[in-house]
């Protein structure tokens, strides 16, 4: 039983900020890379940012310099601080994690249910 639950989405004006959180729970042995993806209406899901277990980060060019991904391994939580938000950031944001459960011998991807981020004036 592994779950990823996102929170922190909402409606914000252009230039505003939001902080997304994604907490993993369940019988987790280890979590490798975690990331945030987003999917806007009519578009494919795309990687926004990810972060390895040791803290190495990767960002999509479209968000680099504006978004910051971080994680708290003790809390099994990944965050996405989103600043200087633009209307084109509007999307459902999904948390993803490569998780090894206690009953498993390999990592598998888990997805959160998504949280809506709407940037509009």
Q: Summarize the main sheet.
A: 7 strands, mixed
Fraction of residues in β-strands: over 45%
Overall geometry:
elongated
| Derived structural class | mainly beta
Q: Report the mean per-residue pLDDT as an integer.
A: 97
* Tally of separate helices: 0
Instruction: Calculate the terminal CA-CA distance, rounded to whole Å.
Output: 40 Å
- Helical fraction equals under 10%
User: Could you give the count of β-strands?
Assistant: 11
Q: Which H/E pattern describes the elements?
A: EEEEEEEEEEE
Q: Mind telling me the C-alpha Rg?
A: 14 Å
Q: Uncertain spans, ≥5 residues at pLDDT below 50?
A: none
What report would you give on this structure?
This protein is mostly beta strands. It has no helices and 11 strands. The chain has strands at 2-7, 10-12, 18-26, 28-39, 46-51, 57-59, 67-72, 77-82, 91-101, 108-111, 115-119. The strands form 2 sheets. Strands 2, 4, 5, 6, 9, 10 and 11 form a 7-stranded mixed beta sheet that branches. Strands 1-3-8-7 form a 4-stranded antiparallel beta sheet, with no helix packed on it. The N and C termini lie far apart (40 Å).
SSE layout and pairing:
Layout: E1 2-7, E2 10-12, E3 18-26, E4 28-39, E5 46-51, E6 57-59, E7 67-72, E8 77-82, E9 91-101, E10 108-111, E11 115-119
Parallel strand pairs: 2-11
Antiparallel strand pairs: 1-3, 3-8, 4-5, 4-9, 5-6, 7-8, 9-10, 9-11
